[in-house]
Design brief:
234 residues; alpha+beta; 8 helices
Length: 234
C-alpha cells in the first residue's frame, strides 16, 4: 500500500490533493468502467466491480447533497462583513466592555463601533467573535483556526464566500467546543478563511442553539438552554 501511495504521489500528485469525495467519485467511475469492460469475459469479477462502483457513486452523491444543503445557505450574507474595514479594525474591539453573567444569562454590551463582541474560548483557545445575525454560519480567521487547532473537514468541498473584496475560498471545519459566560456549544460547524483580516463571526448556527436571545437597552442577552458554570472572560 505504501509503495502504491508513493507511486501515485510521484505519477499523479494532483490526485492526492483533491477532496476525498472527488477521489472517491473517480475511483467509483473507474470501478464501474472496468467492471463493464470485463463483465462478459469475467462475469464473476466484472459484475461485483460494477456494482461496487455504482454503490460508491450513490454514497458520494448522497454525502455531497447533504454537505451542500448544510453549507450553502447564508454564505453571501456572511461575506458582507468579511474583507471590509471591520477585519482591519478588529484590534479596536479588544478594548470593548466584557460580557457578564446574571441569572444564568450572558449579557453582552454594545461596543463603540456598533457591534456586539464576545470573548470566548474555542477548543480552549482564546477567540474574540463579532455577533452577526445575518450570517447563517460561524466563521473563523485562519489565525484563530490555527490557535484552536482546527482541521478542515475531509468530507467537505471548498465553499465560495462573496465578500466586499470579491469571492474567496473557504473550508468547512468542526468546532468541538465554544465556551463563554454561561454558555457552552459543542460540535458546531464553521468556515475558515484566510482573508478576514483577523475577524471572527458568530453566526445563526450558534444563536439557534440557545433558548433565546434579545436586545434590551443596547445589551445583547443570550439565554442558554442549559446554563453552565460561569466561564471567566479570556
Amino acid at each position: 500500500m505504501d509503495s502504491l501511495y508513493r507511486h501515485l504521489e510521484t505519477a499523479v500528485p494532483w490526485l492526492l490533493s483533491l477532496p476525498p469525495l472527488v477521489v472517491a467519485a473517480l475511483v467509483a467511475i473507474a470501478l464501474s468502467v472496468v467492471g463493464s469492460a470485463i463483465r462478459r469475459p469475467l462475469p464473476l469479477l466484472g459484475a461485483p466491480l460494477r456494482l461496487a462502483g455504482n454503490l460508491i457513486l450513490l454514497v458520494v452523491f448522497g454525502l455531497a447533497v447533504l454537505r451542500f444543503v448544510r453549507e450553502q445557505p447564508g454564505l453571501d450574507g456572511l461575506g458582507d462583513n468579511l474583507g471590509t474595514d471591520l477585519g482591519r479594525d478588529f484590534g479596536g474591539a479588544l478594548s470593548t466592555p466584557a460580557q457578564t453573567v446574571a441569572g444564568g444569562e450572558t449579557r453582552v454590551p454594545l461596543a463603540r463601533d456598533g457591534h456586539y463582541w464576545i470573548a470566548a474560548r474555542v477548543n480552549g483557545a482564546r477567540v474574540r467573535f463579532m455577533v452577526d445575525t445575518g450570517a447563517t454560519l460561524t466563521a473563523l480567521s485562519q489565525e484563530s483556526a490555527d490557535a484552536a487547532r482546527l482541521k478542515p473537514d475531509p468530507l467537505s468541498l471548498p465553499v465560495t464566500v462573496r465578500t466586499a473584496n470579491g469571492a474567496v475560498q473557504a473550508r468547512m471545519a468542526r468546532l468541538d467546543e465554544v465556551r463563554f459566560g454561561s454558555i457552552v456549544a459543542r460540535d458546531m460547524d464553521a468556515i475558515v478563511t484566510p482573508t478576514t483580516g483577523g475577524l471572527n463571526v458568530l453566526g445563526m448556527n450558534f444563536l439557534s442553539r440557545l433558548k433565546g436571545w434579545r436586545v434590551e437597552e443596547g445589551v445583547l442577552i443570550l439565554t442558554p438552554r442549559h446554563p453552565q458554570a460561569e466561564t471567566a472572560a479570556p
